[in-house]
Write a structure and sequence with these properties.
alpha/beta; 278 residues; 11 helices; Rossmann fold; eight-stranded mixed beta sheet; globular; 40% helix
Length: 278
């Protein structure tokens, strides 16, 4: 067990219970590394999780306070906690692509609209892998999955001129980034920026699923081949080419530029109370 795991996580959840070769552990480690580099302790953070692979593997892993909000409800619960908790307490959510961009999208948009101080890590394994490998909201066009054996052709939230990150930017998010698991310290730096932002932050992190996506799209569960497949289709923003699926880096940084949700609520409640007392 390494230092970060021992410091921040429960021993019974380490090593991960995810499938062999799953990249979720790498994403999880990047979050822990960011927390460590910011000098935060277990008691400084409340950790929320969702459903699917991302929720199942990260629920109960954090040593400190945590909660689960399944089927897209974690963002609504987190906004309530944001009102109840001290402003210095950080709320981090590790969710899946289906939970964030599918069933929970409306709640996610309203969390961005209100600029609630949350850091959302969307762990994207390119489809509904915990239920057998069906295509999802960000599955690359043409990919073979359990529900698209001839290639996924439906327009989704990663199609031309349709990017869910742009939707969230226009909804009011103040920090947005995208990375793949192999980005290492670049991903850690984005997560740190998201945590430091006093407002709504989202980091979209693509990771490999050898069990379902790899076996359907590549015809193999060979972890190295799938990692190479994803890495070859990722490039830093500004360095994209015709093969790029995921342009990585900071998409939007307007940190601390808008009123934060809970501060705005408390301020106006106090204003109303003063008026009522006159």
């Amino acid at each position: 067990m390494d230092y970060l795991a021992k410091k921040y996580t429960r021993p019974r959840k380490i090593p991960s219970t995810a499938c062999s070769g799953c990249g979720l552990g790498i994403n999880h480690k990047a979050v822990l590394q960011a927390i460590y580099e910011l000098g935060l302790e277990v008691e400084d953070i409340v950790w929320g999780t969702s459903i699917g692979c991302a929720g199942r593997q990260t629920f109960g892993t954090w040593k400190g306070d945590g909660f689960a909000g399944t089927h897209g409800r974690v963002y609504a619960i987190a906004r309530g906690l944001r009102l109840a908790l001290p402003s210095e307490k950080k709320i981090i959510l590790t969710v899946g692509d289906g939970d964030a961009f599918g069933i929970g999208l409306l709640h996610l948009i309203h969390a961005a609209r209100s600029n609630a101080d949350l850091t959302v890590i969307v762990n994207d394994n390119l489809g509904y892998m915990s239920t057998g490998g069906q295509y999802g909201w960000t599955t690359p066009l043409g990919s073979k999955t359990d529900s698209s054996p001839y290639g996924m052709y439906e327009q989704n939230l990663m199609s031309d001129d349709i990017d869910v990150l742009s939707m969230l930017k226009h909804a009011g998010a103040t920090f947005i980034a995208r990375h793949v698991s192999m980005d290492g310290q670049r991903a850690v730096e984005s997560i740190k920026k998201g945590i430091r932002n006093r407002g709504f932050s989202l980091i979209h992190m693509v990771y490999p699923c050898p069990t379902n996506f790899g076996s359907r799209e590549l015809g193999t569960r060979n972890t190295i081949k799938l990692y190479e497949w994803i890495e070859s289709r990722a490039a830093p923003l500004g360095e994209e080419d015709e093969n790029t699926v995921w342009a990585t880096g900071v998409y939007h940084d307007a940190s601390n530029s808008r009123p934060e949700f809970s501060e705005n609520i408390h301020k106006n409640v106090e204003r109303i109370r003063r008026g009522a007392a006159l």
